Model the fold of this input.
Amino acid sequence: MKILAIETSCDETAAAVVADGRQVLGNVVASHLDLHRKTGGVVPEVSSREHVVRLNAVVDEALAQAGLQLTQLDAVAATLGPGLIGSLAVGATAAKTLAMVTGLEFRAVNHLWGHVASNYLTHPQLEPPYLCLLASGGHTMLIAVEAYDRLCVLGQTLDDAAGEAWDKVARLLGLPYPGGPALDKLVGEAALVLDENPLPSPKTEGAWDFSFSGLKTAVLRAFEKQGLSQVALATAFQQRAVAHLVQKTMACAQANGFTSLALAGGVAANGALRRAMQAACEEKKLGLYLPELGFCGDNAAMIASAAYYNPIATGDKAMALGVFSRLGDNNEAYVKV
Ligand code: KG4
Ligand code: ZN
Done:
């Protein structure tokens, strides 16, 4: 089954063609980074307009890479949420329109379940059940993937998302936008060894919940005291944040009897997190699946995979659904229709 998917939930205009949820035939991601660098962050209205400008060429390029015409496809899919409403509306409207004029089936996709599916593109042997740590700019969750279409959120962040914390700390330390990758690079290149970490370890009551806002505030306080260098603070922050993600994930995997783990989302590109997860999984003899770097951040190939394995809805029911900004805003995102 060949699916063309469109992803426009934030600041990447993306389209991809994927066969049977696994084989990437065409994959184009047009980032709006240059535009948002000027403002130091995503301005939703600017992003929506940029999607309008770029989308047609991105879809054409994905089809050209696949060497396919629209009529040779089996379905068209789009992300309906969570994300920026205006941006989502551009991709969803385009995909629904394509489905209408071609007679192809439309499939609605939840962006988060798209991130989970990113590992199917990289690892042909990966099958449920497994535990997925999804860490992105908007979400941080431990998801039990019981079956391809049965995903259960076991724990999540109580405040900031992991990527958001990386971005905010990076901005505070004066690193260039986008902050997460810049901080990762700075720490990696400096390879500083701290005798002692001056920041506290994040704590939460729930065994599988996350919290990053206290850590972020601790960085701010330490920064104001001016005693520590930019690189020392960045290193200390990343050490604590990575340890928190790894410790909660390992505890959740062991308590629930998972033998395989997967990472997903933009933060899954973090070098320190990938290494720390690898070490922890080797020690505990768990299988670890890391997405290819190109599939960690937002892309449409993962949306096409989720459209195959785990759509919110298909056909007329999917056509009747609107876009949604938060996970809780749309029951259909959880409950299949
Ligand atoms: O999944 P994603 O592309 O978009 C969302 O759905 O949010 O995630 C983007 C987030 C940003 O906060 C970005 O700073 C973070 O992922 N990120 C990283 C790295 N690469 C991207 N954070 C830490 N280290 C990285 N290497
Ligand atoms: Zn995302």
About this structure: The two ends are 21 Å apart (CA to CA).
